[in-house]
Fold these 3 entries.
Entry 1:
Amino acid sequence: MSDQYTNPAEEQTSILPEYTEDPEVKKKINNARNWLYVVAIIQTLIGFYELFTTEDETMKWLAFGIDAGLGVIFAGLALYTHKKPFIALVAALVIYSCVVVLLAITDPMTLVKGAIMKAFFFVAMIKGIKTAKEAEALQKLRN
């Protein structure tokens, strides 16, 4: 009886759906995921910078909380790309876009600051979203 038992965890080699076996799909989604990790790290570092450089006690903790919170959100979305890459990447793009717009409203110069990194992030997310959507469509055709 024990030789008939199979552990479901052993059968599953990846938590990613089958369509991600395509190396090009994996590469594009991994690239987008890596950008999410980069943004998560940068947001968290900005939070620590504001914590140690802002003089107003309330403001520094508020700024740290917002930035570190965004860092956690982006890290969580990066992890979620393993399960649902399309949803995670769309959510990340929407959140990042909202942050960019809100910062631009308060200080228009933020659009210029880090423009190259913002452009790379947007391109990576859009490519990742497109790839994830195509991969999901292929998966539906296979099923």
Note: The radius of gyration is 19 Å.
Entry 2:
Amino acid sequence: MAGSMIQIEGDGGAVPVYLSVPPARSGPGVIVIQEWWGLVPHVRGVADRLAAHGFVAAAPVAGIRAQLERAGVPATFHEYPGTSHAFFNDDRPGIHDADAAERSWDRTLAFFREQLGAGA
């Protein structure tokens, strides 16, 4: 399943967003935060994988963490000691840490299901 690029209008103008929708065409919404080098194929792939689990996944072309903190939006961030910055990126074998990636993926899906319900 592949998503597509859309534009979302906001206070600061239009923001490009990669949007991936599950086969049911609806589901709880999640935001996929891109790595510092942008909306690369791996980030789009993560959105597609989340959609395959029943979530509507949006990956905006923007920095989100600082915006969440400034806006006072509750957020949970986990650290994985001993890993590189992009340990989840399985497109980069020299950086990818399969154990940490699996742990973070399972933790993410469990959090989404607990907080948002639904999902496969």
Note: The chain has two domains: 1-70, 76-115.
Entry 3:
Amino acid sequence: MKKKSVPSKSRTTKAPVKSVAKTAGKSVGKTTGKSAPKVPVKPTRKPSAPSTRVLPDDALARLQEAVKHSPSYKSAADNDPAFLAHPLTRGVRLQLDYYKPEVIMREHRIGGGIVVFGSARTPSPEQAHERLRRVQTALKKPHAAAAKPKLRNDLTRAQADMRMSRYYEMAREFARLVSRDGARRKGARLVIITGGGPGIMEAANRGAHDVNAPSVGFNISLPHEQWPNPYITPELCFNFHYFAIRKLHFVTRSRALVAFPGGFGTLDELFEILTLVQTRKTRQRPVILIGKAFWDRVFKLEALIEEGMIDASDRDLFRYAESAREAWDLILQWHEQRGQPLIDVENAVPVVG
């Protein structure tokens, strides 16, 4: 008699779980015949207790001084010239170059000015006369024969200085006229504005000083230092770093521009304003050139018109004058004709003295 077969339960034999390290070790051992290298375990370090060592006062003072004198600690706004001189802070320097004169002139109620340009080399009549006298005296000396070529050049230059010195006196007189009338103006002041240097600039500031009127000097830092002339009102003497910002102040402040004979600097400022007015990038204003004979030799206006470089109407961008009184009258007339009188005579403040 056969026994009934009982369905057997499925037997699952659980393989003993072995550590990965051991299994890996055996498999490597079987394959290479070598045991797996043991991985060194770094001992866990206990955190060290904070130091209770007290530094002496002098050591603390040295550490504090080191921190205070670190370049990173300096205030970037006003106490870190090295950082402000960085190329990436040029935008900040441009702003500062603009804002400082702007803020100060507003505080002094400077509403606008008559800008005077001209050569820094033009001497006063006294200086020119003394220079000519010295050269003439040197030429009369018996031992001057060897130095005659140089002395003759010096004589030519001294004679030219004598001729040009009349413009120094004219600029001084012009500034007196402007400053006297400007003192009668109500509200914001109308002042003389110059580039702050010697020559014609000095003469204009000196004319304002003659009548106890304030005047502005826009000096600029140069590789060869140009010191401001002594006749500028001290509170209104500025030293620009950027020519562009200096020019911006000349343009925005000027109610008129008067150009006396000058060199590259004068020509630069003159043609800058003429270009801005011609292209309507700024408002119109009277531009007066002093000494037509000089400007006709330097600036061939008719040749530019004949060659089609400028329009015939560009003649109206400026006028010529031969005296201080004529220049000031042209400026006053220009503004009155446009209903913008510089000096409101009916409401003007009377001049005392």
Note: The beta strands are 110-117, 189-194, 215-220, 237-240, 254-259, 287-290, 319-321.
